[in-house]
Amino acid sequence: MDLLRAIFIDPFAQMIGSPDLLAQTIWEGFVGGVLYALIALGFVLIFKASGVFNFAQGIMMVFAALTLVGLHEKGVPAWVALILTIAVMYALAVGIERLVLRPLVNQPDIILFMATFGITYFLIGLGELVFGGNPKSMITKELFLPGGSIDLHIPGGRVQLQKLDIAAAAVALIMVAGLALFFQKTRIGRALRAVADDHQAALSVGISLNQIWVIVWFTAGVVALATGIFWGARSDVSFALQVVALKALPVLILGGLTSVPGAIVGGLIIGIGEKLGEFYWGPLLGGGIESWLAYIIALAFLLFRPQGLFGEKIIERI
Amino acid sequence: MFYREAGQYKTTYAADMAIFPIRQDRYGLALILLIAFVAIPAFGNQFLINTMMIPFLILSLAAIGLNLLTGYTGLLSLGTGAFMGVGAYACYKLETFFPQVNILVWIVVSGFVSALVGVAFGLPSLRIKGFYLAVATLAAQFFLEWCFARVPWLVNYNDSGAIEVPSETLFGLSVTGPTATPVTRYLVVLTIVAAMAWIASNIVHGRIGRMWMAVRDMDIAAELIGIRLLRAKLLAFAVSSFYVGVAGAMMVFLWLGAAEAEAFNIDLSFQILFMIIIGGLGSIVGAFFGATIIHLLPIALRALPAMVGLSIDAARIDQLTFMITGILIIVFLIAEPHGLARLWQTAKQKLRVWPFPY
Amino acid sequence: MSGEILLSVDDVSLSFGGVRAIADVSFDIRKGEVRAIIGPNGAGKTSMLNVVNGFYHPQKGEITYRGRTRARMKPHEAAEQGIARTFQNVALFKGMTTLDNIMTGRSLRMKRNIFWQALRHGPALDEEIKHRRVCEEIIDFLQIEHIRKTPVGALPYGLQKRVELGRALAMEPELLLLDEPMAGMNLEEKEDMSRFIVEANRLRGATIALIEHDMGVVMDLSDRVVVLEYGRKIADGVPDMVKSDQKVIDAYLGAGR
Fold first, then answer.
1. Least CA distance to A110: which residue of chain B?
2. Residues B22-67: pLDDT tens digits?
3. C150 in contact with chain B, both atoms CB, cutoff 8 A
4. Interface contact flag, C85 B13, Cβ < 8 Å
C-alpha cells in the first residue's frame, strides 16, 4: 500500500506542492531533450539520404567538440579552431564516403550499421590519441556564448534558466529551420530528397550519390559540432559523453527513423520524461534510473507503434 | 598435398552429414584437442594459461553464444555484456546461498537464469527487427548494468559493491578462488567450452539451426512453411543467453576472481560483437578466430614495441587498440563480410585442389 | 473432375489503407485439381494467395478449408494444415544450401527437441537421416543433385525456382500454391517446370493453385480457371469456356477495341 502510494500519489502531490521545482525539472528536461533531438537530427539526415543507421553520430559529436577544444588547447585561436574543426568534419565526411560507404554500397543495411561501430571505435581511438583522454572544458567564453542565468518568477517560486541553455535552444531552432529551408528550397536539397526516396531513380536522373553522401555526412558533422559545443559546455568534453549520446537512439525509435519533426518531438519527450522520472520516481529505486529510463520508455512505445510517432506504417509485401 | 579427400567415399547419409566429413579435418581437430588438453597444461607458463588461454576460451564461448543469436538467427544484440553479468551475478548468489553444492552445477544453472532473462528481453523481437531490436537490447544492457550497480542484494550487501569468488573445490581439487592453480582452472574452462562448442555445432547443423537460419534469411517465407517466428526467436534468445551467461559466470569464477558492475558494460558487448564480425557471422569456428584476434590484439600491441626496444604507455596502447579494432571491423565488412571463417574455408578449398586453381 | 471441395473462398474483400486489392471474390478449389488464377497485372492474384495462406487478413469474407470455416488463416496454421507456397520473387533462404532449404520444408514433421538435437546422436540422428532420404527423393525428382550443397544465393534464377518448388514439396502439401512458377524462364525451362507441376499433381497427389501469365501453359495444365480483374472475379470455369468469354477477352485486350 505504501509502495502504491509512493508511486502513484506522492510524486504528483509533490509536483502540485512546489510548481517551481516542477517547472525547473521540466526546463532541464527540455534543454536535454533539445540536445538529444539535435543528435537524432544528425541520424535522420544520414538515414534518409543513405539508408545508413549511423551509430557513430554520438561519437562524431564528441569528436567534433574534442577537436575544437583540443586545437584551442594547442594554442590555436578560438575562431580559427572552429573553422579548422569544420574542415576536419568535412574531411571526415569525405573519408567515410570514400573508405566506408563507397566500398559497401549495395550491402545489406545491417552490414553498414555494423560498419558504423567500426567508425565509432576508430574515432574514439583517434580522438584520444591526438588530444589525450583527459576530460576538457568547453571554450564557451572564447566562442562568445553567454554565461550566467536569468530568474523567471512564476506563481509558487522562481525558475532559474541558464543563458547557455537558452542559447542552445535558440541555435537548435535556427538549425532546424535552416535545414528545412535547405531541403525545401535549394537544388541540393531537392536532390537529397530524391535520393532519400529512391536511390536508383535518383541515379537515373543524374544525381551523384557520392556527392550527396559527402554533403549529408558533412551536414551531420556540423550538426554534431553544434551539439557538442553545447553539451560540452554543460559537462566536460570527453568520450564519457558517448553514453549520453547513445540516448539519441531511443529518441529515434520514438520519432521514427526518417522524420525530422519526429526527432524533435521524440527528443523532448525523452528529455522531459527522463528528468521527471529521475526526479520524482528515481529515489524510490535508489536513483540513477536516468541511465535506462529512456530506453524503457522507447521500448514500451515500440510495442504499440513499431513505426514510431511519425513513421509510416509498413506494409510487408511478398 | 596432404589435404586430399580422394578415396574417402561417403556411403551413408550419416557419414555425409558428419560435421567434419573429411578425414584430415578430423585428424586436425584431434591434434588441436591434444595440444589444448595435454601440451598446454604440461608445458604452458602462467602467462600463456592465465593471460591468454583462459580469457580466450571464455570470450570464445560468449562469442559462440552471440553468434547463435546474431549470426544464425539474424537478431543483432548489443546487450551481451549485461547477459554475461546476469550469469556472473546469478552464479554468485547461488554459490553464496548454497555453498555446499558443486560449483560446476551453479555455473550451468546460472546459464539457465541468464536464458530466462534473455527470453524476457527477447519478447519485443516479435514486433521489431534490425536497428530497432538492437536499440531494444541496449535497454537490457543499461537496465541490467544499473541493477548490478544499484541493487545491493545482488552483491550480498557487501561494501565494495563487487562480487568476490569464494574458494571452491571439485573432487578435492581447488577450482575457484585464490587457492586454485591456473592449470586446474584452465582445464575446467577448456572442458566446458569444448563440450558447449560441440553442442552448439550439433544444434546449428540440425533442425533448429536450419529453423534459425530460415528466420534470418527470409522470415516471411519461414513463417509460411510453418515455423513459428516468436518461438524460434525466443529459443535463439534463450540458447544464446545460456551460452553467454555460462561464459559470464566463468569469467568471474574461473578467470577474474572478482568483478564490479563496470566489468559488464557496453564495451564488453561490443568486444564480443566484434569477435563474431571478424571471425565470421554464422560460424562456430569463427567465434574462436574472432576471439583470438580481439583478445590478442592489445596483448600483441603491448609486447611487440617492447621487443624492438620501444616503450609505449598503457593509455596509448588502449587508444591504438580502439583505432585498429575500428579499422579491422570496416576492413572485414568490406573485404569479407563472412569473416575469417570464410577465409579459412576458401584456403582449405584452395589447398584441396592445389596445385590447380579449380 | 468431381472431387470434393478442398478450399473455398467466400465473399473475400481486402484493402490496404483505402486501396482495394480484392473485392467480394468467391471461388473454390476441388481436391486433386489444378486450378489456375489469371488476370492482368494488379488484379489481386498474389493478394488472393496471401489471403489463403494467412499472410494477409481480409476485412470481409470467409475461408473454408478442409471443412473448417474461418475469417482468416494464420500462416503457421495454414502450413500445419498442409498448405505450401512458392513466391513470385523467389523467397529462398539465400545463405543456406539447396539441401538445407529443402530440409527446412520438413521442419514441421521433425519432432526431436533441443536436448536430442544437442547430442545429434540416437533419435535425433535417425530422424535427420529419415528426412534426408525424403529430401533426396525430391532432389532426384527435380534433377538438382549437382547443386545439393551449393548456397542457393549463388544459383541462377531458373534453378532457384526449382529449389523453391522442392522446398514446398518437402512439406508434402495437400494444397500447393504456385505464384508464377515460370516467370522469366525460357521454353525449355518452362517445359521442365510444367512436367514437375503435372507430376506433383498426379504422382504426389497435391492439389495445385497456380498463378501464371503464359496462357499456353495455363490452358494446358489447368482443370479450371478463375479470372480476376481489378480485384473482382470476372470469369470462372474450364479453360475453353474462359478463353471464349467476352469479359476475359476485353480484360486482356482492352475493352475499347
1. B130
2. 788 888 899 999 999 998 888 888 889 988 999 999 999 999 999 9
3. no
4. no
> pLDDT digit string (tens) for A58-108?
899 999 999 999 999 888 898 899 999 999 999 999 999 999 998 988 788
Determine, yes or no, domain membership for A317: no
Note the pLDDT of residue B2.
62
With respect to residue A132, please indicate whether it lies within any of the assigned structural domains: yes
Q: What is the DSSP string of chain A?
A: -HHHHHHHTHHHHHHHH-HHHHHHHHHHHHHHHHHHHHHHHHHHHHHHHH----TTHHHHHHHHHHHHHHHHHTT--HHHHHHHHHHHHHHHHHHHIIIIITTTTTS-HHHHHHHHHHHHHHHHHHHHHHH-SS-B---TTTTT---SEEEEEETTEEEEEEHHHHHHHHHHHHHHHHHHHHHHHSHHHHHHHHHHH-HHHHHHTT--HHHHHHHHHHHHHHHHHHHHHHHHHHS-BSTTHHHHHHTHHHHHHHH-TT-HHHHHHHHHHHHHHHHHIIIIIHHHHTS-THHHHHHHHHHHHHHH-TT-SSPPPPPP--
What tens digit of pLDDT does each residue of C82-128 get?
Answer: 999 999 888 999 989 999 999 999 988 888 888 888 888 888 888 99
Whole-number Å distance between alpha carbons of A116 and A99: 12
Residue A236 lies in a domain: yes
Query: Is pLDDT larger for residue C256 or for residue B337?
Result: B337
Nearest beta carbon to residue A318 from set C16, C17, C91: C91
The CATH number of the domain where A233 resides is what? 1.10.3470
Residues of chain A above pLDDT 90, percent: 22
**Which residue bears the cell 518568477?**
A153
From the CA of C150, how many Å to the nearest CA of chain B? 14
**Residue A169 pLDDT:** 87
Domain count, chain A: 1
d(CA C153, CA C98): 9
Residue of B nearest to A109 (CA): B130
Residue C151: strand pairing partners = C97
Chains with at least 3 CB pairs less than 8 angstroms from chain C: A, B
Q: What grid cell was written down for A133? A: 583522454
Q: Which domains does chain B have, with CATH numbers?
A: 47-353 (1.10.3470)
List domains and CATH numbers for chain C.
Answer: 1-82+210-257 (3.40.50.300)
Describe the crossing of helices A163-185 and A19-50 by its angle, rounded to 10 degrees: 30
Cβ neighbours of C169 in B, within 8 Å? none
Amino acid sitting at position A60: M
Please report the pLDDT score of residue C36 as a whole number. Answer: 93
Is the distance from CB of B275 to CB of B291 less than 8 angstroms? Answer: yes
CA distances from C211 to A317, C34, C228 (A): 17, 11, 11
The per-residue pLDDT for C255 is 57
Contact C104 B14 (CB under 8 A): no
Within a domain: A312: no
Residue in A101, A121, A128, A285 to test binding to B, most B beta-carbons within 10 Å: A121
The C-alpha angle A196, A197, A199, rounded to 5 degrees, equals 75
CA B8 to chain centre: 33
Per-residue pLDDT, C42: 83
Average pLDDT of chain B to the nearest whole number: 88
The boundaries of the domain holding residue A141 are: 17-304
